[in-house]
Specification:
Keywords: Hydrolase
CATH class: Alpha Beta
CATH topology: Rossmann fold
Helix content: 25-40%
Domain Dienelactone hydrolase: 24-229
Low-confidence stretches: 1-6
Strand content: 25-35%
CATH architecture: 3-Layer(aba) Sandwich
InterPro entries: AB_hydrolase_fold, Dienelactn_hydro, Dienelactone_hydrolase-like
Pfam family, one: DLH
Protein name: Dienelactone hydrolase family protein
Length: 231
């Protein structure tokens, strides 16, 4: 194994993605059914960390699906992660995520008529993009430390939004607030934006930036929010 790579999470489901096939990691709650939730990876790929988060969401009652946007590739090297992210066609990723929405809404274990979406880092940006593109199929979007480009069209957003961001980050509070303002102006949705005195990726307990206090607070808020809006 290359020194820059880490073991990917095991893929256990597949679903249509446009004319092709996408893969992902699915976890069911102990009761066997629950509201649907998409968990979108960081720029490192569908790692064991993302799989652990998916298991935690399932333990909290969700049918949780983490799509594999990189086709099994993972890394812990920042430069490689940047390259992998830049090589990911946005349209391809959006197709995969839209396919994941279809998959969950048609899954026999999913009890909700809408899907929730939560994303981390790169995945946070895609969580917001999915809310913008999928309209009323998304009940709630919860981005962690990620925003898409300022040119994003927010007019299709109907989902409730709760965002979790670090104050020590290349993504500045000003940029986050500007995104929230654009969402409000174009869609009428008032995003609940929360900041933590922490670094980027404060939920990732495999990174030096992990902040247990911020992660615990944000996780509890996110789960409560998703339970309220995804039914």
């Amino acid at each position: 194994m290359d020194q820059d790579t880490i073991e990917p999470a095991e893929q256990n489901v597949s679903f249509p993605r446009g004319a092709g096939t996408a893969y992902g990691y699915l976890e069911l709650p102990a009761g066997g059914s629950g509201p649907g939730l998409i968990v979108i990876q960081e720029w490192w790929g569908l790692t064991t960390h993302i799989a652990e988060l998916t298991k935690r969401f399932a333990a909290d009652g969700f049918v949780a699906l983490a799509p594999d946007l990189y086709g099994g590739r993972t890394t812990h090297d920042g430069a490689t992660a940047m390259q992998m992210m830049q090589e990911l066609p946005v349209d391809t990723a959006v197709q995969q995520l839209s396919g994941a929405v279809d998959f969950l809404l048609q899954h026999e274990a999913v009890t909700s008529s809408v899907v929730g979406v939560v994303g981390f880092c790169m995945g946070g940006a895609f969580a917001l993009r999915l809310a913008a593109g999928e309209g009323d199929r998304i009940g709630a979007a919860v981005p962690f430390y990620g925003i898409p480009e300022p040119t994003t069209d927010w007019s299709g957003v109907t989902a409730a939004i709760q965002g979790h961001y670090a104050t020590i980050d290349r993504i500045t509070p000003e940029a986050v607030q500007a995104t929230a303002a654009a969402i409000r102006e174009q869609s009428g949705v008032e995003a609940d934006i929360r900041f933590y005195e922490a670094q980027h990726a404060f939920v990732n307990d495999e990174r030096p930036s992990y902040d247990a206090a911020a992660a615990t607070t944000a996780w509890a808020a996110a789960v409560a929010f998703l339970r309220e809006h995804v039914a």
